[in-house]
Amino acid sequence: MRTKEFTNTVTAIFKREILGYFRSPVAYVFIAIFLLLLGFFTFYISHFFEMGQADLRAFFEWHPWIYMFLVPAVAMRLWAEERRMGTIELILTYPITVGEAILGKFLAAWIFIGIALSLTFPMVITVNYLGDPDPGAIFCGYVGSFLLAGAFLSVGSMTSAMTRSQVISFILAVVICLFFILAGYPPITEIFSGWAPGWLLKVVANLSFLSHFQSLQRGVIDLRDLIYYLSVIFFMLFANGIIIQNRST
Amino acid sequence: MIEVQHLTKFFGSKRAVDDISFTLEKGEILGFLGPNGAGKSTTMRMITGFMPPSGGTAVIGGHDIRRDSLEARRKLGYLPENAPVYPDMSVFDYLDFCAEIRGFTGADRKKRVGDTIDKCFLGGVRHQTIGTLSKGYKQRVCFAQSILHDPEYLIMDEPTDGLDPNQKHEVRLMIREMSAEKAIILSTHILDEVDAVCTRAIIIAEGRIQADDTPAGLRTRSPYHGAVSLTFGPTDSGKLMSTLRSVEGVKNTILIDESRSEVSVRVLPRTRETLIADRIMAALSRDRYDLKSMYVEQGRLDEVFRNITM
Q1: Structural domains counted in chain A
Q2: H helices present in chain A, as ranges
């Protein structure tokens, strides 16, 4: 009985949210900028054509950096706007749990980013036309990219619950995302290597979005990477719930 | 039945709501009165489960809002202050969403949304985006949302705020019509509204209940309750006052206005229970005064409100 209600309310919120993206210009602006930036970086910075390689590495390597700015922009309105408009007072007095509301909103935003990601399909067609790429690697790259977006999104959803200001939410999310990207980046780890114990260094490096993203790009879906992303998402959304339940206003 | 038990809320070290308790039966319409910042909205937010109380709880139809929150919220309809609604949705889509989230499906949901739209006079703006509507319409959309599932318990924070006099009248009528099988709490600044709608009123100031009575009962607390107001044609006011003062049971007489054509006087009884009107009549007719009008004052809620909250 409870499962039926659970799906029912999550679906209701999911539908409202995802239609909300397309009711406003947000969706179209986001998709256009996302595709433009990806195209620009892939072709002009990474010189996709000149590399002469029939794979999408030059394409996927930019995803973390583009997500770092664009995903918090999608996520910042999730809760901050509800708080600013006061509609949070209604949504939290409906007979639904905080978890259902968070999940519905999160899934809607995630699927929306998924739609934007799927619109990069011309890249796949191009690379297949030019050469003979490994379809497994491309598939895994997309899976990795989608999971990465989910992880960023969960961070943004959490920071969005902290404040009624979308700007603060955005900046906080970008900073936290940047930390997650850079955690495994050698220049950063070197700062710690002098004094921090080895195990701590390893933990921090393993928190990095990048290392898990890169291993997925090689064309292997490692269970550990999957678990990593899903647990980041779970943790962030759990924190999101605690923040919502303990808000002061 | 709504049972509010020792609700308390601290904001930092400030005690915004201080040990509020009352019970409300179905059929009652309770008006929450109080100055701004008295704790009305905070109390309502705690009763609806939006804000966790620092102490105490509310039991809605047998379900504790803290321990059995989902069941309690299922029985509630809530109209928050300032009527928050999603501005990017159309009226129909929004109410349809509310019905869906409350678990209505299929034809039942369609009918319910349609009926509510008709009941709240929203037919003309059914497919309009809420963001483009006037304040009064938004208020009605939010009102519609609160009664959509025909809840047993209805909590409304300033339901007529921002409405024009006609719309206010409509909303009050609707609230009265629904009241037979519901328990309703509404907050308001408008004292006339309490008279027009409520069967009971609670005055809150500084987070505490200062008075809990029927509107008529509250009015008896007015300093002018039972006072007799008199208007005369031109007459010698000094002689008139001494006549009135000599009537048994009269505490005081106040000369309100004296002009060439008219003298008006208010006579206060010794205690609230003393009935002095007929004795005054007897004294006046004995001395053949030119009495133009006479009425017994019921007391005014705004005076009572001021006395209690200042």
Answers
A1: 1
A2: 2-23, 26-40, 48-51, 57-60, 63-75, 77-85, 88-91, 98-118, 121-130, 135-162, 166-182, 186-193, 198-206, 209-217, 223-245
